[in-house]
Design goal:
With 341 residues, this protein is α+β, with helices and mostly antiparallel strands. Helix content is 28%, strand content 24%.
Length: 341
């Protein structure tokens, strides 16, 4: 019988891989793990407590704020604020960064970007939701964190991960040394290593996209979807369409079994809808470390410049051969701007 390894034990063992760190990154990941356990507890009892539904407010993204959104945001901010390893937080739920003004955090080395509850529109119908996070080394000097600390390319991430709150609670993260997954054992209250060195297939038979927006997609995306739907024995087509509507859930499934997740531009969202800083960059880091690829249709996601906290981008992410094929269609059918554009 193999020995169970907890998230805490695993992080401590891997700490030696970061010569620039004296344990700060390990403690930061631990703090995120603790907050995610609290959020998971509330998600699991959401049907029994008065935490479902809307707060009645609109967040910076123009979306209805759910009660559990607020709770998750507060829990992660609280956990990251008291640990002393983080000097600033950028959250989907807050227009501006949250600076941590205490003695412990003034010399903190890291900033954290987070989507506290991805897929929250599915909370009320008992569909899996998740948390996405990204960690960077600060670029500013000691003191309060600044916006510029977050305006770094995804290639500068030192760690990224997500937590999926579903039939089981699972935390998946990378520090640039591969991807490992941990499943929460409720009997002991610990995340235990369940998916070591995760790898995603280079090719698969699943595509994930909201086809309800088909008429508003770029021509290259339409052509690629038609390619996926065509019958061809040599390439095992048609592919299966699988779309949950919770980004973490869709991407987690495709990470394990292979597939491509697409969230392209539309007529209503000409710059894309997903946020680069705390959604696309961390997910791209994870999928690349698992052997996949992530682009905006043409360019590598983690090489995109960022100048706004809530900057949006299209996303094509998953099995490398499928992302490459989608990119070929995007390039072939790129729309040529007119003189009036």
């Amino acid at each position: 019988m193999s020995r169970v390894k907890t998230l805490g034990q695993f992080i401590i063992e891997k700490q030696a891989e970061f010569p620039f760190s004296k344990g700060e990154l390990s403690r930061l990941l631990r703090d995120i793990g603790i907050a995610s356990k609290i959020v998971n507890r509330e998600v699991n009892k959401a049907g029994l407590a008065d935490i479902l539904g809307d707060v009645g407010e609109i967040n910076i993204q123009g979306e209805n704020v759910k009660k559990l959104d607020v709770f998750a945001n507060e829990q992660f901010i609280a956990a990251l604020s008291v640990g002393g390893e983080c000097c600033a937080i950028a959250s989907e739920e807050n227009e501006h960064i949250i600076t941590i003004d205490n003695e412990m955090s003034k010399n903190a080395k890291y900033v954290v970007a987070i989507d506290p509850l991805d897929g929250s529109s599915n909370i009320d119908v008992n569909v899996s939701v998740g948390t996405i996070f990204s960690i960077y080394r600060r670029t500013s000097l000691a003191g309060l964190g600044t916006n510029e600390d977050f305006f770094q390319r995804g290639t500068e991430q030192v760690a990224a991960g997500y937590v999926i709150y579903g039939s089981s609670c699972m935390m998946v993260y990378t520090t640039g040394k591969g991807v490992n997954g941990f499943t929460l054992d409720p009997s002991i209250g610990e995340f235990c290593l369940s998916h070591p060195q995760m790898k995603t297939p280079k090719m698969a038979k699943t595509y994930s996209i909201n086809e309800g927006n088909y008429v508003h997609f770029p021509e290259g995306v339409k052509k690629y979807i038609k390619y996926c739907q065509e019958e061809d024995d040599a390439t095992n087509r048609p592919y299966s369409s699988r779309y949950i509507g919770s980004g973490v859930a869709d991407i987690h499934r495709n990470l394990l079994t292979g597939g491509i997740y697409m969230y392209p531009t539309t007529a209503k969202s000409p710059k894309g809808k997903l946020r680069l800083l705390y959604e696309c960059n961390p997910l791209a880091f994870i999928i690349e470390q698992a052997g996949g690829k992530a682009t905006d249709g043409t360019k590598r996601i983690m090489e995109l410049d960022i100048s706004e906290l809530h900057q949006r981008t299209p996303l094509f992410l998953g099995s490398s051969e499928m992302v490459d094929m989608a990119g070929e269609y995007m390039n072939t059918y790129a729309e040529v701007p007119t003189k009036n554009d």
